[in-house]
Specification:
- Helix content is 26%, strand content 44%.
- It has 97 residues and is an alpha+beta fold.
- Strands 4-3-2-1-5 form a 5-stranded antiparallel beta sheet.
- The protein is globular, with a radius of gyration of 15 Å.
- The two termini are 25 Å apart.
Length: 97
């Protein structure tokens, strides 16, 4: 507890707010998701950011064979680098490190 500082929590909160703002600005755009599933397994999918909520955002993925999947991620997934979100029209990550 001695190493904890009052500003540490604010830094993380501001980072999550920046990530949330970046994702909200990209609603409706096509993105590439690289998700770490554990045990050296990663999946790469492309979809459209459908909506952004206070704690999560939803990506609509075309699964093929006329099926559509919706996958939700939290903003902390981007912060902890469990998920990397890249815009498809340009190679910029929505990742705040």
């Amino acid at each position: 507890m001695d190493n904890w500082k009052e500003g540490d929590c604010l830094l993380e909160k501001n980072s999550l707010d920046k990530i949330r703002a970046n994702v909200e600005n990209c609603v409706g755009q096509k993105v590439r998701l690289k998700a770490n599933k554990g045990r050296k397994k990663t999946t790469i999918r492309e979809g459209i950011i459908e909506s952004a909520y206070p704690s999560i955002f939803v990506v609509k993925i075309d699964g093929g064979y006329n099926s559509i999947r919706r996958v939700s991620y939290s903003y902390s997934d981007i912060l902890t680098e469990t998920v990397e979100v890249t815009l498809c029209n340009e190679e910029t990550k929505i990742q705040i490190s």
